[in-house]
């Protein structure tokens, strides 16, 4: 699994789902928070219990019953209201998590349950411990006993949650997918979170806890294949693509768009494919090279950093970093001794002088000693 840090912001891609009069659209979200809580008293845990452990900053989340008999549950929260216009109707959804490790030999059921209260993600990274047992929580982190460690206990240990909203079979390896088409309560959760954002505390993933070795390790939002929630929805009437001067796109009514300085595209009710004109300028690539003229979306799709509209690589403010390994390593002559000491040790003489040096071919000369 590739370990790549991911932004703590929502990654949303809006696309036109149908061309019908309903103007349906789709949004793809990644979690804004996730964590794992651990149940069990084991002698080899330095604190005496895994129930005070957490893993909000790790690259994995866990759900199911471990070989050694203790239970793990994953917590996930998506900011639905930030990505879908208020007043929309949720039509469908799928949630996909990637199983990257298990000791099981057969598919096992895993259920989603809506969480009933706020909980803490924190920054604890349990990967150095292998992840499966977590690491000691910081104040405010979710644990088996506390929604926020040392601050707010769960009413019931293991997370306060409602009835199961969706069930799926988690494979030994690969994607586990919860589909709203077969689980209408999952769509009801999303509609409720859209209509009342303050009630959105996300889901808890509960694996098969009836037997051992059912635990699944899955990529977290910090992992290489983070969870993905795809939601189909019908926006309210008169919602259009709203374009900013930077080329950003959101779905707004025309009045709201104009009041925010945007330009409504009355011919588009989706942001995918990108309907907004993209500014063109210099682009710093991941290998620290510079190119222009390049459109912002093309630059960022390749992992680059857009430097602003109408910029060029020759502009003083455009700094993509120094290209490595372009200058030969200077090798000074071997210093020769000026004589010998009375004890037979070679004597050397060094002069300290001011000089102008070019430390890199992309830098101007600088004074040094």
Note the beta-strand portion. Answer: 25-35%
| Radius of gyration using CA atoms only | 28 Å
Instruction: Please provide the ordered H/E string of secondary-structure elements.
Output: EEEEEEHEEEEEEEHEEEEEHEEEHEEEEE
Query: What is the overall pLDDT average?
Result: 88
Poorly predicted spans: 1-22
What level of helicity do the residues show?
Answer: under 10%
Quaternary form: single chain
> What is the molecular shape?
flat
Instruction: Give the class from helix and strand content and strand pairing.
Output: mainly beta
How many individual β-strands? 26
Largest sheet: 12 strands, antiparallel
Intertermini distance: 48 Å
Q: How many helices?
A: 4
Quick take:
By secondary structure, this protein is mainly beta. It contains four helices and 26 strands.
What does the model show?
The structure is a single chain. The chain is mainly β. It has four helices and 26 strands. The chain has helices at 80-83, 184-195, 254-259, 296-301; strands at 13-16, 25-29, 33-38, 53-54, 60-65, 71-77, 89-102, 108-114, 135-136, 146-148, 152-153, 166-170, 174-179, 203-206, 216-219, 228-234, 239-243, 249-253, 263-265, 280-284, 290-295, 305-309, 339-340, 346-347, 355-357, 366-368. The strands form seven sheets. Strands 1, 2, 3, 5, 6, 7, 8, 12, 13, 14, 15 and 16 form a twelve-stranded antiparallel β-sheet that branches. A hairpin with a 5-residue loop joins strand 20 and strand 21 (290-295).
Which descriptors would you attach to this protein?
369 residues, mainly beta, twelve-stranded antiparallel β-sheet, three-stranded antiparallel β-sheet, 4 helices, disordered N terminus
